[in-house]
Design goal:
The protein has about 300 residues and is of the alpha/beta class. It has helices spanning about 5-20, 25-35, 40-55, 60-65, 70-85, 90-95, 120-125, 145-150, 165-175, 215, 220-225, 240-255, 270-280; strands spanning about 95-100, 100-105, 135-140, 155-160, 185-190, 200-205, 210-215, 235, 255-265, 280-290, 295-300.
Amino acid sequence: MRSAAERVVREDRVRRAGAAPSIGQRLTEAISALENAGVPEARLNAELLLADLLGTDRGGLLVRRREPLKPALAERYEVMLRRRAGREPLQHILGAQEFYGLSFRVDRRVLIPRPETEGLVDAALALDLPRRARVVDLGTGSGCLAVALAVERRDLRVAGLDCSPEALEVARHNARRHAVDDRIDFREGRIARPPEEWRGAMDLVVSNPPYVSEQDWNGLEPEVRDHDPREALVAGPTGLEVFEELLPAAFGLLRPDGVFIAEIGCGTESAVGSLAATAGFRAIDVRPDLRGIPRVLVAERGADREART
């Protein structure tokens, strides 16, 4: 006949065998699954997904690692992991991406903002722009540049142009999210044909245009190639095609001594610089990103020249 102590031990073992796995156990399994699927930074991804699900941060996971993960949450986590293992971007699963200290809604309709693009905001804020300066973001996408500038400089009058009505829905949502929607004029249109009333009226033009070549498209990571909008990335056979239209358009929008700031592709600084000079820009400078790659074009509109088309 078993003692009371033996019965307690046996009952505890039965309970543990049928108990939900702890948060720490499930996280360990998730990391292994993502690693096996070839997902970069598997640990970080698994932790961010679970932290979002539990309404905490990565530190909170450590504190709660011994808690059981409720079955309903475990099922939702499994769905999130399957999506990430299929190389759907983490940002699409979470529905957001941080840019310049702000949270932006992102999905398949827009390009996910990248850290290197923050250099455009830095360059713009370093300018001695007058109060109530007029700024336009050509190819605004998620609106990250327009919104970040409107948040950082409350006096700016900002506009954003994009050919995609779906992208503009996201941009307007992000502007409302950060309470600057009353100061950003979003318009639908093509970079090469901005509204006529903007001509010669802008102090600053910013743009993160498509600059990937068709040849490089297939070599991109699945998260980018299969989920970001192709038209927001690929310019054409060389990757320079968009600048042939963008630079003259930007020149025409700027006031004398206005400034154009754009993100450019790796290794294209000489070619884009030449196109900028041909369009009429002067004081052309290309600045590196955090990895030392020439990334941010800054060019002044000459006061004594007309745009060449």
